[in-house]
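Appendix B, record 7
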Amino acid sequence: MVWQTPKTNWKAGDVLAATDFNRIEGNILELKNGVDQAETPSGAQAKVNAHANLTNAHSATPAAIANRIIMRDSAGRAKVAAPAASDDIARLAEVNTRARVITGTYTGNGASERFINVGATPVIVWVANPDDWAYHKGIMTSEGCLCYRHLPGNDQVSMDNPSTGPMISGNGFYVGYNHLDPTSTNVSGNHYTWIALIK
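C-alpha cells (predicted):
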C-alpha cells in the first residue's frame, strides 16, 4: 500500500464514501507495515556491538593522516605528525631531545657497594640525606663523584673516581659506605633522596 494524504477538513453532514474507507484502511495497513519492519531491540543491539568491535571504524588508522580518527596498531602504537603548537602531542623523536628527571629514595644498609636502579642511564645524579640536608650530599657523573659533608667548622669533601667510589653505571648508580669516609652515601639507617638527570 502507498500512504495517502488524509482528509482533514471533515464537517457536519459529510458522508463517508468507499474511497474514504479505502484511504483510511490503506493508511492503517501502511502504518502496520512500518511497525513490522522496524528494528527489534535485539537487532539494534547486535548492530551496536558489531560497530563497537570494529578495529577501523570510520576509517580510523594508526598512521599520521589528517582528519582521521587515531587507532592503535597491533602493538598498541599510533603515529601523529610532528608537533607545531605547545599543546600538540609530543612524539618520541621530540621527547628524546629533552632531558628527563627521575627521582627516588633509598635507606642506607651499610654495604660498601650498593647499586641503585634508576631504570635508565643517568647523565648526572644528586644524592642527599633529607633527614639533615647539610650532611652527606653527593653529585655523581660518569667520571666519578663529588661527595660533601658539612659540620660546623668542619666541612669535608671527597673526590672519588669510578674505580674507588660512587659512580654512575648502566641504568643506575653505585653508592657505598666506608667507616673512614664521613661523606659516605650508604650509611646504615640513613634515608636518602636522589635526583637523576636522564638524556
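Remarks on this record: The radius of gyration is 38 Å. Strands lie at 100-107, 114-117, 122-128, 137-141, 144-149, 156-160, 167-169, 172-175, 191-198.
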